[in-house]
Amino acid sequence: MVITTVKSAYLKGVADGAPFILVIIPFASLFGLLATEAGLNVFESLAFSVVVIAGAAQFTALQLMQEEAPTLIVLISALAVNLRMAMYSASLTPYIGAAPLWQRALAAYLTVDQSYVVSIAQYERAPEMTVPQRMAYFFGTVTPIVPFWYLFTLIGAVLGAQVPESWALDFAIPITFLAMIAPMFRTLAHVVAAFVAVVVSLLVTQVPYSLGLIVAGLAGMMAGAQAELWLERKKGTAP
Fold it and tell me: What is the dihedral of CA 142, 151, 182, 167, to 10 degrees?
């Protein structure tokens, strides 16, 4: 689709964001179900998705809530997981930073992995797009995503409220994280980061309130960064 107007930009965004529905439906449903398993009621589960609207951070918070971690630890951990949004925002600023404040505020709320990935790719492919067209495209990408995230969180929560406690679905959270991160192992640096994080997390299992996970995450990031630097230096010295 050739973008010539704000409307065509919006419609292209909707088309590009639509395939993510196939991912949103199961993950939102699982979150709603696990939220009730963690002790939230249906309204609280839905409110969680509406307010936070960040899958990885929400699953992290649920895991810590099930471990009865203090509220402050839950908030800090969820924030740490979501720090990538700051990088997304910095990357989008050159393209949509001139938009009206209310549009930028709404875009900040709606910045998720999917909207960022497809939007930044489109902006780089079509640098001639105007700021209104870019904003329309961005809002188009989340049109098929966000409502389904809310709706299937609600459906999952309603279903989860009917699931007997004897089913013990706690195991689904770590499995969900494995499914989320496995496709991201694309380079040696990624593998190194994951390996170091796993080893360190096993060494700090006695740290209270799962704070060892944050320590392990920091260690993994530092190891991955060093591996990336080593690989870059090796490329620079290669004949």
Answer: 170
Q: Spell 102-122 as b/e; 16+ CB within 10 A means b.
A: ebbebbeebbbbbbbebbeeb
- DSSP summary character for residue 163: S
For residues 31 and 160, give the distance between their C-alpha atoms in angstroms, rounded to a whole number: 9
Predicted TM-score of the model (pTM): 0.72
Which residues in 155-188 are b (16+ Cβ under 10 Å) and which e?
Answer: bbbeebbeeeeeeeeeebbeebeeeeeeeeeeee
- pLDDT number for residue 198: 84
Which pair of structure tokens corresponds to residue 219? 């260690």
For the chain, give every domain's residue range: 6-160, 185-237
pLDDT digits (tens, 9 = 90+) for 203-232: 888 877 667 777 887 888 888 888 888 888
